[in-house]
Amino acid sequence: MASPFTLPPSGFGPGSQPDADGELQYMSMPSGMRTYSPHLPEADDPAALSPALAMLLQVADACDAAAAGGAGAEFDLASLPPAARKVMADCLGQGEVSMKLRGIPAVMVQESVFAGVWMLAAAGLDRLEVGPVPALAVARAHLPHRPALGVLARKAPGVVNAPAILAELLDKSAGFRPGAMAHVVNLTLLPHTPEDLDWLAEALGEGAVTVLSRGYGNCRITACAQGHVWRVQFYNSTDQLILDTYEVAAMPEVALAALEDLQDSAARLREVVEATR
């Protein structure tokens, strides 16, 4: 038996010792985090600022109302003159969350740098909406793009634990009530096979809404055709899947603007208006 004194001490190995140049090799740190930085809109014609700034103040008031638990508000960006519309786009920028809504018309949603202030664009639609999430994203979420087959989904060899997971999700979906706490099934912690995941995807179908939230890495959220069921997947900054879940909720919390965020957006909008005047 080898003496322990002849073995290398624990903690030694690749990356733990200086290389030929005498430098240690460190793991790369997370990067790409989007943070808010104030940006003042610019306009060649100062007259273009007036209608844009007036609307921004109305949006700030709507943020305050939504932060207090009130209903969201909508603003028609198409009603602005072209120069003022350009100022609005410059001021609002692009935030962390974007959505694709299937349907007629198909709608692209982009959160602005002010959390809870959403821009909706489609054929004949150019709108700003204030609230935790655009109402249309909730209304269209589970319209079937690919229908949910439930227990009728074809079982291939290798399907082991998926039927039990499906039974839990169907039960929580049927008993869902607005305002109820989200129910999460963490696939990352459950034993399953690739065939299990394929069968669940077929059994639950696919809805009409896809959400991408960018922060330290990405979070991809896909509505299922089964009511109130969402697939929520988290990726790290190197695009590796680190958390895979199904969530039963009206909308996964990661896609929502918190009430505190809306209150903060109201204050930031007013700061931009005051600094621009």
Q: Would you mind describing this structure in some detail?
A:
The longest helix is centred in the N-terminal third of the chain and has 19 residues, at 49-67. A hairpin with a 5-residue loop joins strand 8 (217-223) and strand 9. Helices cover 28% and strands 21% of the residues. It folds into two domains: 46-132 and 258-276, Ribosomal Protein S8, Chain: A, domain 1; 140-255, Ribosomal Protein S8, Chain: A, domain 1 (2-Layer Sandwich). Mean pLDDT is 87; it is low at 4-13. The chain has six helices and ten strands, in the order αβαββββααβαββββα. The protein has a ten-stranded antiparallel beta sheet with strand order 1-5-4-3-2-7-8-9-10-6. The protein starts with 48 loop residues before the first helix and ends with a helix. It is α+β, with helices and mostly antiparallel strands and 277 residues long.
Which structural traits does this protein have?
277 residues; 6 helices; Ribosomal Protein S8, Chain: A, domain 1; ten-stranded antiparallel sheet; elongated; alpha+beta; single chain; 10 strands
Alpha-carbon distance between the termini? 81 Å
What's the structural domain tally?
A: 2
CATH topology of the largest domain: Ribosomal Protein S8, Chain: A, domain 1
The level of helicity is: 25-40%
What share of the residues does DSSP label as strand, in percent? 15-25%
CATH superfamily of the largest domain: HupH hydrogenase expression protein, C-terminal domain
Q: Which architecture of the largest domain does the CATH hierarchy give at level 2? A: 2-Layer Sandwich
Average pLDDT works out at: 87
Count of extended strands: 10
SS element count, helices: 6
* Helix/strand class: alpha+beta
Residue windows where pLDDT falls under 50 for at least 5 positions: 4-13
Radius of gyration: 24 Å
CATH class of the largest domain: Alpha Beta
Overall 3D form = elongated
